[in-house]
Amino acid sequence: MVASSVWAEVRLIMGPLLDYRQWRYNCGGNRRRQADYYEALARSGVNGSCESFVEFMLEAIRESILPYAKPSSSQDMARIRVLAFLSGDPHATVTQLAQYLGCSKRSAERTVAQLKEEGVLERQGSPRSGVWAVHAPGL
């Protein structure tokens, strides 16, 4: 019962931005997001305030629309493409990334190095058999 009252409060606050059925559909394929959804909902019920749930939903909406945001420069676009590619294929090599981007291997290495320095991208495991971990919201 508490969860339904929290959801009603959220619907009043956020209006037409949220469609519960669509959210359930989107959430269903992502176990982590689904677990976070129910955790935020439960936290809101315990607190008697929908604040944590609204924060969760706003972040989820931000993550959902971020890939469609227009980058401010071609460098930003390249960074977004790198992160999207490596989050989709964590076992990819820098050579494969360069082929995907249509640039030299050295250019891809520079972009990867910059993203690693910023903490957005991390190589986990060995250089040969490791995987890429992307720490960017929405990807």
Q: Mean pLDDT score, rounded?
A: 78
Largest sheet report? 2 strands, antiparallel
Order of helices and strands: HHHHHHHEE
Number of helices: 7
**In terms of structural class, how would the helical and strand content be classed?**
mainly alpha
What is the percent of helical residues? 55-70%
Coarse shape:
elongated
Q: What's the Cα radius of gyration? A: 19 Å
In total, the number of strands is 2
Strand order of the largest sheet: 1-2
Beta-strand residue fraction: 5-15%
Low-confidence stretches: none
Note the gap between the termini: 34 Å
Describe this structure in words.
This protein is elongated. β1 (121-124) and β2 form a beta hairpin. The protein has 139 residues and is mainly α. A two-stranded antiparallel ribbon has the order 1-2. α6 crosses α7. Helices cover 65% and strands 6% of the residues. The protein is built from seven helices and two strands, in the order αααααααββ. The longest helix is centred in the first third of the chain and has 17 residues, at 31-47. It has helices at residues 2-14, 20-28, 31-47, 51-65, 74-88, 94-101, 105-118; strands at residues 121-124, 131-134.
